[in-house]
Amino acid sequence: MSVTIRDVAREAGVSISTVSKVINRSPTISQATIDNVHVIMERLEYTPNQRAANFARASTRNISFLTNFKKGMVYEAPHIFEMICGVQNELEKNGYTLTLVDTSHEEKEAETVRKIIMQKSSDGIIIESESINRSSADFIIQKEFPHIIAGKPNFEHSISWIDTNNVLSGEVAAQHLYQCGYKCISFIGDKSGSVISSSRLQGVQSFLLEHDTELMEDHIHCINNSVEESYKAMLSLLKSKNPPDSVICENNLIAVGIFRALEKSGINVPKKLGVIIIDDYPYSRIINPSPTVVNINIYDMGVEIVKALMRKIKNPALQLQAYTTLPELIKRESTTSQLTS
To answer: Does the predicted TM-score (pTM) go above 0.90?
Structure first.
C-alpha cells in the first residue's frame, strides 16, 4: 500500500495542510518543521503527486525557455547555455522545472508563443532576444502572460526584458586599453545585425570620442561570426598602412581567430599588440597568453531573469526593462602598460 500525505502528517506530528505547505515551499513554515517533514518523507519514501498538486493550484510549476536551437549554435552562440545554467539553478530554488523550446521551425510568427499560452503548458516564458518578434510581443502583452526577454529586443516595445549593459562593456574595454597606453585601437565584431555587437561597438566609440582618440573606420572590421573570418580580419589589419597597437574582440569565437593570426604573424602579445575580449565565456580559458576580458556575467544574467520572472508571475501587469549585471574587467596577460616600439 502506497504512503499518503496523511501518513507523513501523522508521523511528523503536524497537519496535512502543513505537509502540503512544506511540499509547495510556503514561506510561512519554520525551517525546523520543514526539516522534520523532509526527514519523515525520506524515511517513508513518500513522493508527492506533483501533477495533482499543480492541478489543485492551477499551476504547472514549469517555465519555457524559447530560442532558435540551430545546428552549430554551441559554437556560434555558446553564451545561451551559460545563461540557461543560471536560469535552471535559480528555477530549481523556486520549485520550478525548465522546458527548452525550439523556435526555428515556426511556420507562422508567434506560433510557438501562442501555443504555450493558450495550452497553459507553462506558468511563464523566457525568450532569447534574437527569437522574439513584434507579433509574439503583442500577443504576450495582450494576454498579460508572465514573461522576460533575455536581452533587449531590437525593436521598441512595452514587453519586459533583462539585459547586461553591452554599451558599458565596450566602454570598459576601450577604457582599459586607453589607460594602458594603447593609442591605435581596432575593433573586430559580428556583422549579423545583432544588437549586442552594435552596442559594444557603440560603447567603444563613445569612450574614445570623449578622450579625443579616434576609432578609425579602417580599424573597424564587422565580419561573419567565425574563427576563419576573424583570422583573415586580423591579418588584414596587420598588413594595413597604419596597423593597430591593440584590438577589441567582440566575443570569444572571434578572439580564437585573432590569436591564431597573431601567433602566425609572430606578434608578441601584449608588448607589440594588446588584446582584450568582451565576455569570459567559453574559450578564454584555452587561449594563450591568458587574455584580459570584460566579463559580462552571463550566468548571473540568467539568475536575474528568473528573479524578475518570479515577480511577473505574482504580478503579470508589472513592466520590467532593466540592465542588471554590470561588466567586470579581469586583467590577465594580453594587455600591459609597458609598451615597446
So the answer is: no
